[in-house]
Amino acid sequence: ILFEEKTDVDIEGGEYGRALQAASLEGHEKIAHILLSAGADVNAQGGEYGNALQAASAGGYRRVVTLLLNDGANVSAWGGGYGSAFHAASDRDYEKIVRLLLNIGADVNAQGGYCGSALQAASS
After folding, report:
1. N or C: which end of the chain has fewer CB within 10 A?
2. What is the pLDDT of residue 5?
3. Are the beta carbons of 54 and 84 closer than 8 angstroms?
4. Other C-beta atoms within 10 Å of 76: how many?
5. What pTM was estimated for this model as a whole?
């Protein structure tokens, strides 16, 4: 119904920043796909998790992470509490997501976010 009313899929506000980030954090793959198909910006910044890829990584949703990466999500994007998707997955001990992000170029030595480095995040 909302899409029939020409809803702005990238409107910003609230804890999650944007609808795509909220869907990603909660693992709603179908909703994330619908939002991306409607033109949501996969790399939009804002909210507690910085971007949709970081949100999906923090939530541990590998299929959503893969969907976002296939749609052009930037593995090196910074922002939000964790700093990056790689830091979020490392902090939450989501090994499959950590490996996926490493395989596509996540910087293992990058610094930032709550824990500083991914190694510090994984160690906490």
Report:
1. N
2. 63
3. yes
4. 14
5. 0.91
